[in-house]
Design goal:
There is one protein chain. With about 170 residues, the chain is mainly alpha-helical. The protein folds into 2 domains: about 40 residues, no CATH class; about 120 residues, Zincin-like, CATH 3.30.2010. Helices cover about 50% and strands about 10% of the residues. The protein is built from 7 helices and 3 strands; from the N terminus they run αααβββαααα. A 3-stranded mixed beta sheet has the order 1-3-2, covered by helices on one side. Helix 3 packs across helix 4 and helix 4 packs across helix 6. The longest helix is centred in the middle third of the chain and has 23 residues. The two termini are about 30 Å apart. Bound molecules: zinc ion. The site of zinc ion (ZN) has 3 residues, from loops.
């Protein structure tokens, strides 16, 4: 089952699921579903009161992330080829095998430590292009408290991804 902020929950079933299978999935997931609905109904960060436009957010994100990425890359002795800001609804950042780093501009809405963790995470991928034990050991070495930032994203990330700048709200 999939719940996206601002959309009704979706039940994803196999193409040939029977009526009974679907009924069963709903019944067994009822509690989870209720929790998800309650969660999406209560916005806790109050981002809907912000007036940050996408252009402002991208500028700010580029400046802050660029600075963090540079200093972390220098510290690890790695280089990247490009740094781009993206408008994504499902991910925070990515690192291609060619060394292009992309970040979600909405990260400027997160606390500094969280933004910092995402940048460090992607820079660490320039050393380890996977999520293996070596990778996480490197992240932990660079940011010993990274688990807290990760937990913050799990808890509040959806609200940031759901942020609509004022110009998009009016449309
Ligand atoms: Zn990663």
């Amino acid at each position: 089952m999939v719940v996206r902020y601002g959309f009704p929950p979706e039940l994803v079933v196999r193409p040939r699921a029977s009526e009974a299978d679907i009924e069963h999935a709903i019944t067994t997931n009822r509690e989870w579903l209720a929790r998800q609905l309650a969660k999406s109904a209560s916005s806790r960060l109050g981002l809907d009161r912000l007036t940050l436009t996408e252009a402002q957010g991208r500028r700010e994100a580029h400046a802050r992330i660029g600075l963090l990425a540079q200093s972390e890359a220098v510290a690890l002795g790695v280089t990247y080829t490009r740094l781009t800001m993206r408008d994504q609804r499902s991910r925070w950042g990515s690192c291609s095998s060619k060394g292009t780093l992309s970040f979600n501009w909405r990260l400027v809405l997160a606390p500094h430590d969280v933004l910092d963790y995402v940048v460090v995470h992607e820079i660490c991928h320039l050393v380890e292009l996977n999520h293996g034990a070596e990778f996480w050991a490197l992240v932990a070495r660079r940011r010993p408290g990274y688990r807290e930032s990760k937990a913050w994203l799990d808890e509040h990330g959806w609200e940031i991804l759901a942020y609509r700048p004022p110009e998009a709200r009016a449309a």
